[in-house]
Amino acid sequence: MFKQDDDAGFNFKKAHKLYKIALKNGTSSTLDVLKSYYNLIMYHQRIVDEVSLEKYIDSCSTLSKQIGTFHIHQIYLDEKRASIEEWQTNYHTALGLLQNSIFKIEDLKPEAYNTHKNFLTILYARIASIYQKQKNYELAIQYFEKSFGATDYLNEVTFYRSFINSQYAELMFNRGNYKKAYEKLNEASIINDQYLNPRNDDNAGFLTVRNQYKEQIDKKNAQINRQNAELAERTQEALRFRILLFVVIFICIIIVLIIRSRMKHLKHQKIEKGSQELIDVKNKELTTNTLQLIEKDEIIKKLSSYIKKNDIGTSSKSLIKSIENQSESLWDAFNKRFVSQNIGFYERLQEKVPNLSAADLKVCALIKLNFTGKEMSYLLGISLGSVHVARHRLRKKMKLERDKNLTNFINSI
């Protein structure tokens, strides 16, 4: 995996998903999926992921039983199980699993043995490593030597042999055999330089092809990120423009509504002012007409009094009665015209001052038209003193302070 464990793990898992999909579609075999499981096993063994390793070992074991290759795959799976036992310091169990795998390879038929004997290099080295941890250095050296002696005609475990040489060199150094340590360390360096040194022209393409591909992917991702950033910026600009447009439209609507309301209010004020002016004119006319009627009524009363003193005949009595009837209907005529010209006045007044009597309402109507006390007494048929009393009573009912004008208060209603 050339020190690229994260990338390797990602691609192993991705490939495994594709293999499983291909198996469902009939474009891949169970053996292909089994090999994919084994790649995942080696990856999780390398990164020391005990839980995942055990899970994939079980899956691989189940599949190998299905296709009838369990007797072979068990050799390799037991070596992986030995790693779990070794991590848990169950060295005796780990050694048993490794020894069992060696026995099974040695018991294979010649053709199968030749195919799988390269794996003995790894098994012997694994046993040597465990003995080294147990500080059983004699057995460790013995199994390291066996590992070096195992044949590897196809160079399938060349990279692992470099690791074994490094471990053995460390053991020899600690044991004081510096010459042997140097020789094995040198052998490890030769393998590393020959196969894993990126400065070697023969390895350049092999080791850098994946980096070139990764660079292309990174470049493509950077381009996509830039495009996404530009798209996000344009989206933000469009959103800001829409928000600004909505705000402008909203403000325009508010302004239009305010102007419309203002114009409506001014129009209403104008109409109300015109109506009030018309009412004031009519009230003045009513006042003038009423005063003229009062004057006429006074003349008629004087005439009636004169007739009573000088002539008491039947025709004179009939004339006097007619004059008296005419005098009694003077208030009714005034009130009828007042109500028609000042619609709702009495209702608004009673709403504001609920405890007003009918006599109080009459006085209020005459005050609104600015009648004098004398004119009010004549029109209401009461004395001037009674008029003053009535005005005083009104102020009390209306709870007006002394500095408040009664006429202004009534005119404001």
Automatic annotation (TrEMBL):
Does the record carry Lipid biosynthesis as a key word? no
**Coiled-coil annotation: which residues?**
210-237
Which SUPFAM superfamilies has this protein been placed in? C-terminal effector domain of the bipartite response regulators, TPR-like
* UniProt entry tagged with the keyword Transmembrane helix: yes
**Keyword entries, A-Z:** Coiled coil, Membrane, Transmembrane, Transmembrane helix
Q: Name one GO biological process term.
A: regulation of DNA-templated transcription
Q: Which domain of life is it from?
A: Bacteria
Listed GO molecular functions? DNA binding
- Give the transmembrane region(s): 241-259
| Identification of the protein by name | Tetratricopeptide repeat protein
